[in-house]
């Protein structure tokens, strides 16, 4: 098994990436796929902002605007933010807990391919008769009557990629529970691992309601069901409930890992341990728990009655408490620290006030009577963009800078990074700050144009200018990433202040991670070892011996491909609302499902014991990577 | 890792103890099964006997709850202290059950208005 | 140690399903998956409860007229008993008695098959009465909930069959012991769901 160090042909490399089960390679694939969809969704946002730049604009049509806003929201949440966070979770969680790989490497690969092919399926809608156009929430009263196949693409694409997300979430939970290195107790886990655990638990419990909701929509749209059709006794509020039971935790699924990333960046560059570690853990769990008890605050104006509104309003406001705990802990970590304002730290410093602003407007909307005013206005748009861009996107950009050396053994350019930050950050506030006022002035969200003379023109123009700046910022970020190819290798712990296990591992990281499983002696284990002058980096819990590793497999791709094919069959079902059925629909559906289940049976019948990497091979690999005696 | 698992031959006494332990355990399972069948029987009986719906509904729900706990803890070995991370597993299951309860509550009260 | 190490009853570990790291992961992972299934079925149940007896104006079908207790009782007995027989199978798995385990699994399989046949008969009967999938919101919700359970039963039967055939010749080892254990867990979970279906759908349907 020493072939992994030799130069490979292009075809072999592609095959290697399709079949890989290595969490580090999958992390890179998540990163690339997430960036692709982030760029697409960002471009959609720019088109919308250009359309809204001036009153009565006719840059794009009303129908296309609906498609853009739907695809922008759906793509950003499901296909950009989620995979980008998964990239960091995949890369960092096994390293931070000192594991060889995730608990189920096969499922890890399956999760990626389901996500990716589902995402591709959804985007094919642009070329096959129109994208979904009922908003990312796709309320049944709208989407049931949407002509064409747009909604069908939404339902099937999200179903497939949702399975992928669910599988990955389950995998992370088991990994964090069972695969921790000796000494890595729950209360010594880095905060990013904690947030990954809670966020995965939220995925586990939030995605099934979405799956059910999508199945109900699938039956109604494509197979003659009546869940949401009121003339047949159905009820569209069921969709709203199922969607928001999923939708609200989804917000925390995304923002908790972002909190975790900042909880790694801030102590590192304050050179001080995280203030109130245990209260941070507690707050994370509490946010996760409360996140499930507040979904109906998205439905205040649906007419659930004053009792329900009051209960959900109070529960929603309660979430501000643990979130506030976190904010104070970050501030107190910085307080009195020996601060280095690097690019990641700059993003963290920008994040705190931006996110607080988004949180405060959230509490405003939690008050049900006020929400009747704010509902469906640009105030809402401003609020959730402050949370998502100010919280999640800053986390992603900041940690891209922070963790680039872990991913690729290269540093990003600090100077360009700081410029990027300022361009993006100013653009972000220009875009969304004024939208608060647009909302208060009565501009509804999801409109494709507006009349002049309502006092909205100026603010919309400013907003568009800001969006253009954000676009420039993203391009600068991508250029920075591309330029890093030419930069010299970064080596181990390039920031010099790494605290947790992922910085202790030598670079480039061999595919089996730590040669010997490390022994963890406390919170921030690498920091402890450095303080005690340990030149080796870590102390180890086992002697150098054989390593058991999982085999690569093409089956995850085949399983996902089967569902991808089956989705086309369902799309053109003869019972569909879209009245554009094909005769081959049902056979294709069956063939696709047969491929999937066939591959699953092959997987369970064929033994997969993995392979053992022997001591001599390990030494040989390390010599190639680091030179004789680690002197390269 | 699989290669970390040593093959240990049990002593005759240990072997017999384990056998006996398993057999006793299995007897308990049969008793649990008898209880479940009995509960099911009662549930169907009260419905067939046509009592007031206000009595039947909470009663059969209670019986169902007992059966579920029996299934989880007896048949599915959640009570087994040797189950790896049994506490974490139980936490996840009960959180799922709590969520299930909130869904029922919501869909019975705030769907129709 | 290799996965294919041959065991005797004397060397067979006490908890074979959790003797290897892969086994431990599998058991923990499967339980977590079951927690996820709890929420999945809860969503379906909640939808059914919201749509129970709702249909187009003048719908003649209702739970009280449609459901019959004897059939539901027979199905319940079959599935409950199959749960016990799978416990027997795991008992013999822990005693390293492969033949007995296969026999009890086969009995479980037959009972499950009997359940499935009754369910298919029941659906056929309802469709015959005109209570089709597209008849009303109630019918759609009913078929989706009970049908999802039925699909789980079918999947369980295929799973058991595959496991039995695949391992018929090679007997028990530490590679397949967790697989049998996890399949049995799944089967119990199907039974748990059915307990709620017969209570919430059938019993509470009959009383109205």
UniProtKB/TrEMBL annotation, chain A:
It holds the Pfam family COX1. Its main location: membrane. It catalyses: 4 Fe(II)-[cytochrome c] + O2 + 8 H(+)(in) = 4 Fe(III)-[cytochrome c] + 2 H2O + 4 H(+)(out). SUPFAM superfamilies: Cytochrome c oxidase subunit I-like. The chain crosses the membrane at residues 27-48, 68-89, 110-131, 151-179, 191-219, 242-262, 274-296, 308-332, 344-364, 384-407, 419-441, 461-483, 554-572, 584-605. Keywords: Cell membrane, Copper, Electron transport, Heme, Iron, Membrane, Metal-binding, Respiratory chain, Translocase, Transmembrane, Transmembrane helix, Transport. InterPro entries: Cyt_c_oxase-like_su1_dom (IPR023616), Cyt_c_oxase-like_su1_sf (IPR036927), Cyt_C_Oxase_1 (IPR000883), Cyt_c_Oxase_su1_BS (IPR023615), Cyt_c_oxidase_su1_bac (IPR014241). Its EC number is 7.1.1.9. It is an enzyme of class 7 (translocase). It is found in: Cell membrane; Membrane. Pathway: Energy metabolism; oxidative phosphorylation. Residues 9-521 form the Cytochrome oxidase subunit I profile domain. It is a multi-pass membrane protein. Cytochrome c oxidase is the component of the respiratory chain that catalyzes the reduction of oxygen to water. Subunits 1-3 form the functional core of the enzyme complex. CO I is the catalytic subunit of the enzyme. Electrons originating in cytochrome c are transferred via the copper A center of subunit 2 and heme A of subunit 1 to the bimetallic center formed by heme A3 and copper B. PANTHER family: CYTOCHROME C OXIDASE SUBUNIT 1. Belongs to the heme-copper respiratory oxidase family. This is Cytochrome c oxidase subunit 1. It comes from Lysinibacillus contaminans.
Automatic annotation (TrEMBL), chain B:
It comes from the Bacteria. It is a multi-pass membrane protein. Pfam families: COX4_pro. The keyword Endoplasmic reticulum does not apply. Keywords: Cell membrane, Membrane, Transmembrane, Transmembrane helix. InterPro entries: Cyt_c_oxidase_su4_prok. It is found in: Cell membrane. The chain crosses the membrane at residues 30-49, 55-76, 88-112. This is Cytochrome B6. It comes from Lysinibacillus contaminans.
From TrEMBL, chain C:
Residues 1-206 form the Heme-copper oxidase subunit III family profile domain. The chain crosses the membrane at residues 28-51, 71-91, 103-121, 141-165, 185-207. InterPro entries: Cyt_c/ubiquinol_Oxase_su3 (IPR024791), Cyt_c_oxidase-like_su3 (IPR000298), Cyt_c_oxidase_su3-like_sf (IPR035973), Cyt_c_oxidase_su3_a-hlx (IPR013833), Ubiquinol_oxase_su3_dom (IPR033946). Gene3D superfamilies: Cytochrome c oxidase, subunit III, four-helix bundle (1.20.120.80). Its main location: membrane. Keywords: Cell membrane, Membrane, Transmembrane, Transmembrane helix. It is found in: Cell membrane. PROSITE patterns: COX3 (PS50253). It is a multi-pass membrane protein. The keyword Transmembrane helix applies. Belongs to the cytochrome c oxidase subunit 3 family. PANTHER family: CYTOCHROME C OXIDASE SUBUNIT 3, CYTOCHROME C OXIDASE SUBUNIT III. This is Cytochrome B oxidoreductase.
